[in-house]
Amino acid sequence: xxxxxxxxxxxxxxxxxxxxxxxxxxxxxxxxxxxxxxxxxxxxxxxxxxxxxxxxxxxxxxxxxxxxxxxxxxxxxxxxxxxxxxxxxxxxxxxxxxxxxxxxxxxxxxxxxxxxxxxxxxxxxxxxxxxxxxxxxxxxxxxxxxxxxxxxxxxxxxxxxxxxxxxxxxxxxxxxxxxxxxxxxxxxxxxxxxxxxxxxxxxxxxxxxxxxxxxxxxxxxxxxxxxxxxxxxxxxxxxxxxxxxxxxxxxxxxxxxxxxxxxxxxxxxxxxxxxxxxxxxxxxxxxxxxxxxxxxxxxxxxxxxxxxxxxxxxxxxxxx
Amino acid sequence: xxxxxxxxxxxxxxxxxxxxxxxxxxxxxxxxxxxxxxxxxxxxxxxxxxxxxxxxxxxxxxxxxxxxxxxxxxxxxxxxxxxxxxxxxxxxxxxxxxxxxxxxxxxxxxxxxxxxxxxxxxxxxxxxxxxxxxxxxxxxxxxxxxxxxxxxxxxxxxxxxxxxxxxxxxxxxxxxxxxxxxxxxxxxxxxxxxxxxxxxxxxxxxxxxxxxxxxxxxxxxxxxxxxxxxxxxxxxxxxxxxxxxxxxxxxxxxxxxxxxxxxxxxxxxxxxxxxxxxxxxxxxxxxxxxxxxxxxx
Lengths: 320, 297
Fold this sequence. Notes:
The complex is a heterodimer. In chain A, about 80% of the residues lie in helices and about 0% in strands. By secondary structure, chain A is mainly α. Chain B is built from 15 helices and no strands. By secondary structure, chain B is an all-alpha fold. The N terminus of chain B is likely disordered. Chain B starts with a helix and ends with a helix. Chains A and B meet through helix 1, helix 5, helix 6, helix 9 and helix 10 of A and helix 7, helix 8, helix 12, helix 13 and helix 14 of B.
């Protein structure tokens, strides 16, 4: 019951966040200096298409009517028409979204798989040599500019050592297992770029919370009862230390998505981020607007999932 | 008392020296941290270099004769696809990157501190303001900045406004949580009891209490603003008439120099890294200097 209550509150907040994103997008596009038609009418658009678009969006009526019409169209999945291809924005972007989800999802997974042992290693021997190294590398890691990492990896692992392909997400004309392998092969460098960009935050957060947990009385109790130190770390302290790390996932997802935009640009990876870069070059406003709305929805959903996971992990949420 | 005076001990000798103010104590501890001072020196060096750009190198424009040449005595950082000197681009780019970083950070701090202190002080305004902050923090900021920058049209002013507009919620969140613990302290009640106005309490009692947090926020927001500017410029939304570190990378990417000339991307990348790492270290050293626990150690 508590959990249901918690879940519905989170759901409501997620919905409010998405509504906020959609609303500021609407008003920014219409109230910013510049002709709002610029964001709706493409240079090469046919009269008929333009008339339909204006009618769909109610552009000849008041701002409130327009807003309602905009929400209605959005509810039906209409994000407008791309300038460049005259194709619906939703079609253009939905074809790209799976690649971005694959990239960000795999980056998050690898970050956690690498970050947890590293954080534990640093925390167990706090102020030791490994810990010092983790802290120094961590500070530098948090200060890296995502394209710089991407370009560095592209040079060293891609061009110089020739270990991984650069550009696109899969070799055409591959099928079955070869296709899966090709996808993973193309994914490696962009994924590694994002892992390097966010790993430090996870390791440093886990390290700090784990050091705190290890000093708590319940850990002393476990030690007194004869539990081995590794059991105390992995079974007792880590469980509690992972909770703040779960919240960090929620905080970092926005950054991860931004990083994906930059990474996809470097590697010509055909995700939503690359679509944004192409749209900037062609001033394809409907695509830019649609991409933000779509990415905001993705982030809100991902946040909702981590919130629910947190609720399941933390007994205080369930019973308090 | 008379005994002491008669024993001939100068009263000044038994008196302990007055405790220095916390601010001075922090500064003294900070000065003893080589990492903090070194980072401060690096930032100062980059700032001086940027300010003196016109004296050091000509504004990189037009076409040069040597195209995509590696680092040499004539061109320390090599040349780009049009034969322009990359050293000059990095120096001139530092100007814009740092100006945008500081201006955007200044604006973001102004808004963030106002919102944060107001939210902590006015219980009725807190829920809506906190909601606004939470919701803004949950959104993917870069795609939003891209949309706005593309709509308004890229320029230095646009970049400053766009970055500030989407960076203040972080500041507001930190300031609010710090100020919240202060508003409950008795001295704030006392200030209210003697009839102090709300504005007076907020500016004279709450603001000084959160000042240290603001110092850290200034440094971190500025370095993040530098990264945001670089990101936007890298995607082609930089000011068309000036250089910035992100724009050098954008040029390398667009012209294809990225895959041929390592020097076209390495040096601007190092410049960004140097500035952001230094800023991070300054904030860490400042926090250590303020914390009595780490100060003694």
